SLC13 family permease (Macrococcoides goetzii), 455 residues
Amino acid sequence: MRVDISNRALIITISCLLFAIYIFTSTDFEYLGKISVILFVVSLVMFVATPLPAALVALLLLTLGVLIGLPKSLLFGSFEQDIIWLMIGAFIISGMLEKSGLMKRLSDWVLNQGHTRKMNRFIFIASQFISIVIPSTSSRAVMLLPLYEQLVKKLPQHKTYYSLLFPTLILMGSNLTLLGAGSHLIGMGLLEAQNKNTLSYFEFLLFGAPFGIVIGLISMFIIRLFTKVKHEQIEHEYIAQQHYSIIEKKALLIIIVTIVLWMTEWLHHMDIAVLTLFIALIIMLPLFNIMTFKEGLKYINWSLILFVAAASALGSLLVTYNVVDDLQQSLFKTLSSMKWMNEFYMMLTIITISVLSHLLITSHTTRAIVLIPGFLLLANLFQLNPTATVFLALIGMNYCLTFPVSSKSILVFYEADAGFTSRQLMSLSLILTPIYIAVMMIFYYCYWSPLGLTL
């Protein structure tokens, strides 16, 4: 039997083998740490450079890791993460919106604007609003996915634009509020544990919302240039529905209750993942007559669920086996010897490290857990304002656009018949990363510092 291997595949294979040899012969990591680095880097290479399904790549490499020494719990325990069950519940709730007709009503209204410029304004406003009321980026992505699917059916020529725009706006919207990302709460919690000044919900809104809106608008403009789409008129046959049906009213009531419960997690202390799954299961009861259990399961993107589970496990390897810890200690040791560092260089260092941290640590929450203590140590070492240090780090960590695995919200659209490839996403990130850093620096001097949030 003859096996055809392309030159490109051969080059990728040889490069990965050479990298593995280098890691094993030239680094001081423990055995499992070396395996972790190799699997993580090879997975990123395969995501970008091969046409293989991302879920297949992640599961294949994770399973290989278990076979050569990683604990079996890493593979099977990856499905115990809160995010997995949160996304399953959110997909079912999203399916309710689609099946009830509410999403069709909304998408018809959007398309009836008659021009893509007006549509894009609405999408921007909607993404900002949903970023304020829904605390999970994954839930926000799943909620907006049906709208995206309806739009690209009508405007297939804009598919790449919208498949990049939706997750980007969702991620940039994380900057708006204290509840925009779980990492924000972790950062404030670590500040409080050290008896440092924390930011209240309204203080974070004051500092974060203007930046989130500005960087969202800039990202929208950059994506339009990147995808080379042009605004155009839309002809859409829209039949106005004056009255909501019974099933639409039920769905609307359920989604309102769900959003209220999401927003008030600080009050009722119910875990958001369990709460979302519970509401999803309630929806499928015959009592509500909205959808059956079998219908609800069909709305779940199982390929994405498998990808998220495996990719999250791969991303956690560098933390679990102290690779990131060793690199962080080496970095901060180097920084501590630079006594000439002034405010500008410290600000630039904090922003750059936090923005680029998603390349090594794919989990938003894990980035905060791993890096915030290091930044607090840096603040103490150089006598910086710890509140400003943590805020800058949190805003920087919200940038995670380089790879599909960098964010769950990107994965939602990447796996949903995406209009972009991993390579396109990386190319876009090469443009947006320096812009994001530059805008953070401008905001520091022109907005945050004058308001008192200074290093």
Notes: Residues 155 and 234 are 9 Å apart (CA to CA). The radius of gyration is 23 Å.
